[in-house]
Amino acid sequence: MTGTVWGGKRAEASPAKGKSGHAAEDQDALDLAADWADICQGLKKDLGPQLFNQWIRPIQLGAFNKDSGTLELFLPTEFSANWVADRFADRLTLAWKIARDVRHVRISAQPGRRAMPDLRLARDNTPTRPAPVLGDSGRVHGHATEGASAATDTLALASIGLDPSLTFPTFVTGTSNVLAFNAAQRMAALEAPQFSPLYLKAATGQGKTHLMHAIGHAFLANHPRARIFYCSAERFMVEFVQALRQNQMIEFKSRLRGFDLLLVDDIQFIIGKASAQEELLYTIDALLAEGKRLVFAADRSPQALDGVEQRLLSRLSMGLVADIIPADIELRRSVLEHRLARFTSVDVPGDVIEFLARTINRNVRELVGGLNKLIAYAQLTGQAVCLQLAEEQLTDILSANRKRITIDEIQRTVCQFYRVDRQEMSSKRRARAVVRPRQVAMYLSKVLTPRSYPEIGRKFGGRDHSTVIHAVRLIEDLRTRDADIDGDVRSLLRQLES
User: Fold this and answer.
1) 207 annotated ligand binder
2) 209 annotated as belonging to a binding site for a ligand
């Protein structure tokens, strides 16, 4: 019997006689999961899909103690656990009370989750951290011994929040990010920068976090004994709240102000936290007064941070605000080619690279993820990478990135470009001056729309799908050996995608 949690309690399943303890535990777990599925249905209806997907869906069921009536619920991070506990604890407790005999719901971060960098003090009141240094070869060296293992070095970097793979040499530059890249290098240089703080502004997946990690690596290479800390705004708030609750604010202030380089990512998440904002403001003032370096990153400019007091806004924007605009197609090609250098055993044709660069245009992270997925699939299945495989395996990414271009729009643009009448797209005329534009329009319809070959054929005067396939393959071939045709197609692509 399933029943909903909003209507009454679920009938408890009784283990049959002779069942083992493990079987009974398994049945309890199944019942608990079924109850949670019912609760989720009710919460999704009450909260709406956006709130539900962001905060409730990530919840994992923990143990249920029947004696105390306590159920444990886990979330991926401390921040999300605190958020859900503050806003939804009563609602969750009520729902579980209706579903079964749950008297208390305990909400916490998932045990065994990846630990965040620690800010605890050493006995001499200096911030604790390993002191790794980047050697000339790019390998990370520890101070303990020259022969320290790479695993130990990587662990040392992780303890201060830096990803060893995110360095300046692995960052691909173009016109859209060169200002931010140069400013980041200047921030990490031996000599003091002309500006501080540096504020990196970019949409998701455009490289601002990569640059922050790269600054940390280069700064450590140039200043081996420097004290550095990278954290997210979420981590800053968690540390701040913990210090406040434990009456350790003096130690917290001392820790933060002891660093030579402070990197705070996703600063937009500090919106509305008045006390945390005030502490961050004082920390900025203290570090700047001592000539320390600060880097912030966010998905919007300082002036667009609603809920942030004016004094903090002025501090965030007093140095240099460096925008990283969405990558243009040239940079997207460069990113793919740079990434492809890691996979020397895999052959990815140029038309696939061009297709990915043109189609996955929302952010660089999705672009690299799409290439990784395509290569992994080809390696695991033994298939060759081709345009058809890319279209089949990257359907979700491609559909999310594609501009909604219609076949009618393509036909209209092609007719204007080649100066032919629109009716020629559906006519039976086979004059070369008409056939070639028609074939180009069919090719673009396949490249820029999710329509199938038969659907495209119907839009071109009811032509058979084999005619469309022939046109697409012909234009693909002509682009490789006819510079004029390739130039025409590139011009049309720019017009249609702009």
Assistant:
1) yes
2) yes
Spatial distance between the Cα atoms of 460 and 408, rounded to a whole number of angstroms:
10
- Counting other chains too, the contacts that 80-83 makes at CB distance below 8 Å and 24 or more residues apart are 80/55, 80/109, 81/107, 81/108, 81/109, 82/238, 82/241, 83/55
Class of the CATH-defined domain 407-497: mainly alpha
320-324 vs 198-202, strand pairing mode: parallel
Instruction: Check the annotation: does 21 bind a ligand.
Output: no
Where are the chain's structural domains? Answer: 21-109, 133-324, 329-401, 407-497
The position carrying tokens 């490789």 is: 480
Amino acid letter, residue 325: I
Model confidence, pTM: 0.55
Q: What topology is assigned to 133-324 in CATH? A: Rossmann fold (3.40.50)
* Residues 395-433: tens digit of each pLDDT: 878 776 666 788 999 999 999 999 999 999 999 888 888
CATH topology of domain 21-109: GMP Synthetase; Chain A, domain 3 (3.30.300)
Number of H helices, E strands in the chain: 20, 10
CB 459 within 8 A of CB 469: no
Return d(Cα 222, Cα 214) in angstroms, integer.
12
